[in-house]
Amino acid sequence: MALAATLIPKPKPARDYPNLNAILGIRGSFNVDPNAPGLGIVPGKYVLLGTIQARSSIISAQLVVTTGGLAAGATYELLTANDISTTVGPQSLLPATSLDAAGSFFPTGTEPALGYSNERRYVFGRLTSAAPLTAGRWDAIVRYYTKFD
Amino acid sequence: MATYPKILKPARTYPSVNAIMGINFHYKADNPDPTLGAVGLTAGVPKHIGTIPGGSIVLAGFKHTIAVPNGTTPTLEIGTGPTKDAAGNPVVADPDAFATSAVLMASGVNAAVVGALNGFVAQDTPVFALLGGTGTTTGEVVVVLQFYTQKD
């Protein structure tokens, strides 16, 4: 699968903190209400949420739907790609998950992007919705560890 | 006596940061590159990989078995210790207190790795990796132990 339709205004650098052996995270926060804080909502486009350093382990991904009912059939998915040019190594991190109802959703243990990689990975999210969005709020959180020791 | 670190890594945390902390261990049997974070193991010789600060809560760990170690009855465990036996040889007190061999030798990802010492640890707790069996020449396993240290 190529990330043919992407929205990448500028590659985000990987963010870390020296000598801090903490579990790090990337969060994408979305709210259909234009007056609420959050990232821009662009259905059908892969939106870059952040960058994970090479030789990191992605521990988990989580989708938290606080307010569902955006539009019937709306889904959100997460994936990683090794190349910002969007053609190399896209791997699923969270399969397309329904946004119809509130809840907290996790990938199965078999999603290929979970775990260790020698490569730097860009995390993308994509909203898919055939109908116009009317309401809703959701967050995507990816946890990872990047220190060697 | 097998080689053994004389100085253990101190418990590492960060003042007043309310973050979940981690200890990473990247075992690679063939051509491990320490500059990239990978280390090898000698069967029967526990390797110190970090220390969990006293007063921490040890959470479920994470592991990714990229390649299952080969050889004759290979085992891989993450535990605590060591103490020394009567002859002065190092003995890991509880070799699989944080991750059992059954879990680590299973291929793939597991984000719910638990052992007997998950939960509260009162004292600074050195963590060791221990390879068992003979003839291991290939294998790659990454483990991230997770714990929370702050008390407020």
Describe this structure in words.
The complex is a heterodimer of chains A (149) and B (152). Helix content of chain A is 0%, strand content 45%. With 149 residues, chain A is mostly beta strands. Chain A is built from no helices and ten strands. The model of chain A has no long low-confidence stretch (mean pLDDT 84). In chain A, strands 1-3-9-5-6 form a five-stranded mixed beta sheet, with no helix packed on it. Chain B is mainly β. Chain B has one domain. Chain B contains one helix and twelve strands. In chain B, the strands form three sheets. In chain B, strands 1, 2, 4, 9, 10 and 12 form a six-stranded mixed beta sheet that branches. In chain B, strand 6 and strand 7 form a beta hairpin. Chain B starts with 20 loop residues before the first strand and ends with a strand. The mean pLDDT of chain B is 87. At the A-B interface, strand 4 of A face strand 1, strand 4, strand 9 and strand 12 of B.
Kindly summarize this structure in a few lines.
With 149 residues, chain A is mostly beta strands. Helix content of chain A is 0%, strand content 45%. Chain A has one domain (28-139): Sandwich (Hypothetical Protein Tm1070, Chain: A), CATH 2.60.290.
State Rg of chain B: 15 Å
- Number of separate helices of chain B: 1
CATH topology of chain A: Hypothetical Protein Tm1070, Chain: A
What characterizes the major β-sheet of chain A? 5 strands, mixed
CATH domain class name of chain A: Mainly Beta
User: What integer is the average pLDDT of chain A?
Assistant: 84
Instruction: Estimate the global geometry of chain B from the Cα principal axes.
Output: globular
Largest interface: A-B, 19 and 26 residues
The SSE order of chain B reads EEEEEEEEHEEEE
Helix content estimate of chain A: under 10%
Number of DSSP E strands of chain B: 12
